[in-house]
Automatic annotation (TrEMBL):
UniProt GO MF annotations: nucleic acid binding
Pfam families (UniProt xref): rve
Xref: SUPFAM superfamilies: Ribonuclease H-like
Annotated Integrase catalytic domain residues: 1-124
UniProt name for this protein: Integrase-like protein
GO biological process entries: DNA integration
Amino acid sequence: MEYSQETGRDGWATRALVLDCRTRELLGWHLSRSGKASTALSALEHALIAQCGTLGHVPAPFRLRSDNGLVFTSRDYTALVRSYGLRQEFITPHCPQQNGMVERVIRMLKEQCVRRHASRRITC
């Protein structure tokens, strides 16, 4: 799972992504102008609906790997993760390569955004 902020012509936005590391499928995402944990919570819930068809205790729990950011260690986020029966796994601080798969997806999204809007000189 990844949470990041981007700046563009219209200001900044936060993005949360949930990626299945086995299949490399993007399971859930949320884009918001809010920098709150609710953005990550929404992405997680979209991923659970995509995987399980509903919200609630997950029959086959999986690990959520993320960095040690405030969003992923917040009381609201950790409580929701526990309520679904999931387990959090944190990467070593300052080692983004441990979350390389989702970092690569973000890089690809940025590159495509820049290519798409290059003629308008917009930075994503």
